[in-house]
Write a structure and sequence with these properties.
Elements: E1 4-23, E2 26-41, E3 47-54, H1 67-84, H2 90-96, H3 104-121, H4 126-130, E4 136-138, E5 140-143, H5 149-162, E6 166-170, H6 177-187, E7 193-196, H7 206-209, E8 220-221, H8 229-238, E9 243-245, H9 252-260, E10 266-269, H10 271-274, H11 277-290, E11 294-296, H12 303-312, E12 346-348, H13 361-367, E13 368-375
Length: about 375
Amino acid sequence: MKRRIERVELRRIGLPLVAPFRTSFGSQTERDILLVRVELASDDGDLVEGWGECTALSEPSYSPEYVDGAQHVIEHHLLPRLFAAGPIEAADVGPTLSHMHGHPMAKAALEMAVLDAQLRANNQSFAEFLGAENTRIPVGVSVGIHDTIDDLLSTVQGYVDDGYVRIKLKIEPGSDIEHVAAVRDLIGANKPLQVDANTAYRRTDGSHLRRLDDYDLLLIEQPLPEEDIIGHARLADEVETPICLDESLVSAAGTADAIELGACEIANIKPGRVGGYLEAVRIHDLCVSKGVPVWCGGMLETGIGRAANAGLAALPGFTLPGDISASTRFYSQDIVTDPITIDDGHVTVPTTPGLGFEIDTTFLDSVTTGTEVIESD
C-alpha cells in the first residue's frame, strides 16, 4: 500500500568519535549527522514513522556532498517533489527525484526513511524484504592512518582481540608499504587484510603500488581519483592484487561500465553513495551476474545505518567481510536501543520490522543540535 508523506523532521545530531579517524582526505574527531524522520499516512489516516540517515560528511572531501548542503537540497528541492507526488512507496522515491541531478546521499536518506516506514507498516524486516537468507555475516574493521607504526600495531591488535575477521588499513603515500608489512607480520599470513587509499595515488604510482602484491591483500580499494576509470583499468593490469572501486561507483550503470572496462574487479557498495538501498541492490545483482565479488562499505553510520547495512550485506553476493563494525568502534553510545555488536567476528542480521533498529529517544534528544519540521500542504 502506498502512503502519503505527511510530515518530515530533519534532525541534526553531534556525536564525538571514541578516537580520531584519519584517512587520506582528512581526520575526523566528531560527526555532524543529518537524520530524516518521515510520517506516512494511509487513506484511512493511520500514521507510521520511518527513519533515514544521511551519510554526507561535514565537508565535501569524500564526495561533493556535505551535510549542510544535503539538508538544504532536501528541504528546498527534494521534499516538495515528494509531497507533490501523492501516495508513494520506497521504489517511487528515486524515479520521482530523478530530474534533480546529483545529491545521492540526500536522496538515499529520504528513500531510507520511506523504506523503514513502509517495512514497519507491513510488519516486515529488511532482510525478508530483500529475500536475504543469511542470518549472520562476517565483518571487518577499518583502521585509520596512524602517525607511527607502533601506534598502528597496537590499534590493530585490539581489533584482532575483538574478533574481527578482516582488517582494512587506510593508506596514503608515505603511510603504506611499511605499514602494511608491519601489520601483515603482526596478524599472520592467514588473516584477511586489505587497504583503502581513498583516491590518494595517481596513474604513475603503479610500480609503487605493485609492491603491495608481496603481502597477499584481498584488494586495493580506490587507489586513483574517482573519475579515472581508465587509470584503474590500467592499474589492474599492472598489479596482481585485485582493484576495488568505491568513490567511482555511483550507479548500477556506471558500475557496469567500470566492470566492462576492467577497472572494477571487486565492488564496494555504499548505499548512500549510490542514491539508496534499492540502487545498492541493483548493483549487487549486476555484480553477481558478472561474477564480481562485492562487500558493504561504511560511512561511520549510527545504529540506523549499521542495521540497514547488515540487512543489505545478508544478500548472497556479499562474499567479502564488510565494514559493519560494532557501534562501539566509533561511538561510546549509539542513538539506538540495540546497537550492532559482533560475536566471533560476525554480526547477526536484524529481523525486527523496518530496517532493524529502535531509537533511544532520550539519548537522541540529548545529542540533538537542531530540528526542522516540514509538513505537506
